Amino acid sequence: MGPARTAKGAAPLDALALEDAFIALTDGVVVSAAEGRIVSANPAAFRLLGEDQLLGRIFDDLLLVSGAAAVQRTDGHVVRRAWFPREERMGVLEVVSTGIEERGWIHTIRDVTAQAELLRLKEDFLLQVAHELRSPVAALSAALDLLHQDALDMPRAELQKMLATLMRSALRLEHLIENMLDAGSIEAGTFQVRAAPTSVRIALKEALEVVQYQLDAKGQQLVARISPVADRVLADQRRTAQVLVNLITNASKYSPGSTTITVSTAPVGGSVEVVVSDQGPGIPENERPKLFQPFYRARTAREAAGGVGLGLTICRAIVQAQGGDIRIASGPDRGTSVHFTIPKARELAEEASGA
Ligand SMILES: Nc1ncnc2c1ncn2[C@@H]1O[C@H](COP(=O)(O)OP(=O)(O)OP(=O)(O)O)[C@@H](O)[C@H]1O
Ligand SMILES: [Mg+2]
């Protein structure tokens, strides 16, 4: 060990030996002799590799067990990626091995699980976005094609149906693009809302203009129970409508046809709680906290319906920026209900009296 360092008689900085750095480092460092046997390893190496005993063992054998694959080879360096058990699941380690002349190797080991996961999510996301864009764009071009050929001879009713398809597809594209832009500004920390006294009823009406066609298409009914208290909240009306669009869209697309979706409100302390509930499959408890992460989609939902996994992330950003909170309550086979709060707008009289 290095020199003892107490708060009072701390060793001067220049007395910090290389060995202290070696011990304190969060990356694992392993030194192996020319024939591969480990001669030295820092505490992080034991922790990352999940081994109690390293000295004397062949380093490459450890990696072999975990199915390491070389991802890069340059003169003197080998970069390998390996899977290792980490807490409950598998983690990804990146191992960079550098030859020390002919005498041996120094291997640095870094936990890159988070980066690997993000990369995978982003790859999935790109695929999903392309997939999501494809159907409205295909519907748009098919409808435009038909209109281009026969618009003048088409019966009025058919023309109207066609235009409705065009509107729907355009709305879907607009919604998708808006979600993606917002996700970008949330990540960049520039996301903003403009709260003013407004009504949940009006925001819901605005939302229904976007989602009604989807409910109709699945034969679903929306029941609204909006109490008078929800008519005076402090919120960004357009953004609140966007939250409702996202939640109602989820409730609709993850639930079977001919079911009912309920939007209700109730006062809770200084806030109004809005609840969107459905009669769908519900969400297992262990998945619930992850749903607010960007790009995260539950396993079952991935097959059930399209989506890119941004809706709830944006809902949370909007709700929190307005000073509220959002949570999911659901059990398997009990349907899903998403609860969010919006601060009540203070009465003008209250404001005037400074209450
Ligand atoms: N009402 C619901 N019933 C069941 N699962 C739901 C419900 N709402 C959300 N989920 C789950 O939460 C995940 C995340 O929802 P979110 O709205 O963020 O993304 P998405 O619907 O997949 O995509 P999009 O970005 O298009 O909204 C969904 O993929 C789904 O697994
Ligand atoms: Mg969604």
What labels describe this entry?
2 domains, binds adenosine-5'-triphosphate, elongated, 355 residues, 42% helix, disordered N terminus, binds magnesium ion, five-stranded mixed β-sheet, six-stranded antiparallel β-sheet, alpha+beta, Heat Shock Protein 90, Beta-Lactamase
Can you describe what's shown?
The protein has ten helices and 13 strands. Strand 4 (77-86) and strand 5 (89-100) form a beta hairpin. It starts with 17 loop residues before the first helix and ends with a helix. The strands form three sheets. It has a six-stranded antiparallel beta sheet with strand order 2-1-6-5-4-3. The chain folds into two domains: 13-111, PAS domain (Beta-Lactamase, 2-Layer Sandwich); 120-349, Histidine kinase-like ATPase, C-terminal domain (Heat Shock Protein 90), CATH 3.30.565.10. It has helices at 18-24, 43-49, 59-65, 113-150, 156-188, 200-217, 237-253, 299-304, 311-321, 348-352, and strands spanning 28-33, 38-41, 69-74, 77-86, 89-100, 104-111, 196-198, 221-225, 233-235, 260-268, 271-277, 326-330, 336-343. Residues 1-8 have low confidence and may be disordered. The site of adenosine-5'-triphosphate has 21 residues, from helix 7 and helix 9.
